[in-house]
Amino acid sequence: MASFHHCIKSGKKGTACGHAAYIERRGRYKTRGEDLIHSAYGNMPAWAANNPGRFWRMADKHERANGAAYREHEIALPNELHVDQLIALTERTVRELIGNKPYQYAIHAPDGSLAAIPNPHLHLMYSDRLPDGIEREPDRTFSRFNAKQPELGGCRKDSGGLSPLELRAGVIDARKTIAHLQNEALAEGGHDARVDHRSLSEQGRQRRPERHLGPARVRGMSTKEKAIYAAHRGGEPGLGH
Questions:
Q1: Residue 217 has pLDDT above 60, yes or no
Q2: Is residue 214's pLDDT more than 80?
Q3: Compositional bias (Basic and acidic residues) at which positions (predicted)?
Q4: Which of 77-81, 155-159, 223-227 is most confident?
Q5: Count of beta carbons in the 10 Å neighbourhood of residue 178
Q6: Contact present, 107 and 239 (Cβ < 8 Å)
Q7: Domains of the chain
Q8: Is 148 exposed, middle or buried (0-12, 13-18, 19+ CB in 10 A)?
Q9: DSSP for residue 44
Q10: Residue 160: what pLDDT?
Q11: Are 106 and 214 in contact (CB under 8 A)?
């Protein structure tokens, strides 16, 4: 059952490389690799053209102490779509949300905690640093932007100088875009299901939002309790990781 979930996260300096390994199920996360169905990257600078891991290592090393080394869109994907359709939808989503910024993504599809229903979702990591055609070494890429002499500073951050109101508007626009692209993909695939980026109250629905149980609580539930809860939710799985 298609359902809408989208959140934006930030990773502080020193966490980007580890998170990239996590979404790609590399290193100590290799044992969780059975849920990884696709990964890709793009828009990397010349010094990391074929090595996104180097880009995130340099972000961890050279980004400002109080700066975000990466940001991430975490997005639930419709489980009505097969793998090729999920990949095509993801590529459209990346083009619309990321533009020319450096990115790396992974699609995970674990079974839901409460029912054995595939739970595909997207981890889309990206840098807020905007390429501007100037070739920079890694340390310069992540330094402070110099508006008067751009070649002497780092790449400008996309969120730099925006007010809270402008940032909020950007999030709403992203959510609208994600819902629109998912509904397009569902329609193209011949499915009747649709998603809605709006809150329940904005949709005029009285149902209270579901309470997230969390992995620990789900593990403590009996098989019967899981079945009852899953049936109450209409078989809809949680997001997972």
A1: no
A2: no
A3: 189-213
A4: 77-81
A5: 24
A6: no
A7: 6-232 (3.30.930.30)
A8: exposed
A9: -
A10: 77
A11: no
